[in-house]
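Thread: Newbie trying to understand structure tokens

Hi all, I'm a second-year student working on a class project, and my supervisor (Dr. K.) asked me to get a predicted structure for one chain before our next meeting. I've only ever worked with sequences, so writing a 3D structure as a token string is new to me. If someone could post the tokens and maybe explain what I'm looking at, I'd be very grateful. Here's the chain:
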Amino acid sequence: MWQAYHSVSSIDEALALLAQHGRAARIIAGGTDLIIELERGQHPQLQILIDITRVPGLDDITLENGTITLGPLVTHNHVVGSQLIRERATPLAQASWEVGAPQIRNRATIAGNLITASPANDTITPLIAMGADITLQSARGKRRLRLDDFYSGFRQTALQPDELLRAIHIPALGEDERGIFLKLGLRRAQAISVVDAAVVLKRQPDETVAAARIALGSVAPTIVRVSPAEGFLRGKKLLPSVIAAAARIAGKYPAPIDDVRGSAEYRSEMIKALLAKALRRLAADEVDSGLPAHPPMLWGAQVGRVVGGLPESIVHQPNTPIASRVNGIDLRITTGQQKSLLHWLRDDVKLPGSKEGCAEGECGACTVFLDGVAVMACMVHAPRAHGADVVTIEGLQNADALHPIQQAFIDAAAVQCGYCTPGFLMAGAKLLDEIPQPTTDQINQSISGNLCRCTGYYKIVEAFRQASARKLATEKG
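---
Reply by user tm_fold:
Sure, no problem. This is what the structure looks like when written as tokens:
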């Protein structure tokens, strides 16, 4: 397990630590993959964790001279909520919406997704299709390279031990360009890609394809381009016969991977199906489908942004106290530094309401609010709570009454075994703060990361509706 957890207040501090410790150090941005890997003992060499999550200015999304730039703390929810990305980098917005659930998207960063380098990581595919570049930075300076050149093999990148990913640069789609991302998973939410595809086309005024970029994910050790299909499309209109022929060409990709999620033969067929669907939708200009206009983010009044930052850096070692405000009470806990936030809250703060159902961000039973943002506590390191405000299920009710969502769960008989209930209540409370009168779709989207193993979703959704009505009636007086 790690020996020191550095919460830094500037990029320069992070770079100095990377220069000092090299392969023994790792940056924490979202940390949603790393915390699981550490629990599994996959990084025995890691001794130093460097948390940059409270460095201001790293979560910006900007447009300059036709290039969109994402900072290293831009999360998947930031992308989903960005009108700029939706309009000028549509495939990335679509891919980000497919990642995890609101609590995961509030922590997981696009930069972290690129560095993890799994060929099934959804956001890599659209970024390669859009021709993205990245900037890597170390104490020695900066270097910029094409994202295509960042990957050298399965989960292997060009990132040096003393570097961090400082920025992602995306050529914004022009007026004559359209792009789309499609994914095949084995379930409706929180699914790992069996196959995913991103297509970007530039078309002439007569609808002839002037240029095409097609990228496929989860079919090879890295994300791959389909050059033969790209070349075939150039100079042609997206007629049904052309679309079918391009899909057949893509389906001939040599030897797709064969694993538990799908055989190579199945993947070949699905490549054809996905690419044909993508091209049909581009031909009909239906690229915005699948992105809700007002998705529930569960991210609070600050919309998941870093505000203020840390007044000063701190190094947590196994004996360094964690000073945090939990459910409105200032605490100073001297134990649990190497635990997850969930285990720290349960074991050391003695608040057992948040539950562990999976320890992998799959079930939502551990949902808490961290600085106003709904997160999976099992996927946050305990030292992140230092100087932060944390709310658990024990702090949800008002001084003199239950929260409307709590009362609604009682009235609607939405509680069954009760194990998942704390996570549903926390998601529901944050949803109602954000969207006082949510639609059924918005309710379902808000709890896409919360699993009820008793399968009592009808009562749960009804409780959300009752809570909305109760909260509105209370506020009206």
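A couple of things are worth pointing out once you decode it. The mean pLDDT is 94. The radius of gyration is 23 Å. Feel free to ask follow-ups in this thread.
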